[in-house]
Task: structure prediction
Amino acid sequence: MKEFSGKGRLRFLGDTNQTWLILHENGQVNLWPIFEKKFMELRRERVVFSAKTESLSLKKDKQSEILFDCYRIDGKVIPGLVNLKKVGTMSIMPHIRDVLGEINGRIVNFEANEEGISITADS
Result:
């Protein structure tokens, strides 16, 4: 079941701005509220996170040894990963920022569904 999918030109204005737009022929969509909603839905789920030069994804995976967590600080959502085998956590925001910065200005495909969220630069 798709909650949202779209294709358009990414306009990433930085993670502190929280305005991550996809510009398309019918207007624009701010991706930040979609990411934020998905982060809250995936909270405490086992996940697989992938951040590559031209794509990122965060998907449920019951076999994963990585737990997704997020919390709010001064109204801002901070997403992170917890390794269930080792002690430690990792913020994924720097990775998200790096990928979105790399594909900024390019045509991207975006999808958010019950399994997770992904964004990929169109080739």
Q: What stands out?
A: The helical segments are 31-42, 93-103. The beta strands are 2-12, 20-24, 27-30, 47-52, 55-60, 66-73, 76-83, 89-91, 107-113, 116-121. The longest strand covers residues 2-12. The chain is about 20% helix and 50% strand.
